[in-house]
User: Fold this.
Amino acid sequence: MVKKGNKGVGVWRGFSADPVLATRAMVDLAGAKLLRCFNPVYLKYERDLEELEKTRPDVHNLAKGTAVLFVTAFSVLCIAAYLMVAF
Assistant:
């Protein structure tokens, strides 16, 4: 369990330990939330999340932290591309 003050560090450790698992958890969590309204395919994502929770109980925090890391990296790349074009 990650202490309250070390959530950011815990996300980095979890992502660096197994980036494939972290990305899979993020895709499964987003797929289950987004597809629940439209399609019964979301049951596949929920089953996969249940399997991940057996091995890692903090899979929701890992998925949210991974999403934040990906958004941050994408934003930095977009800003760098904009600055290259602007100058």
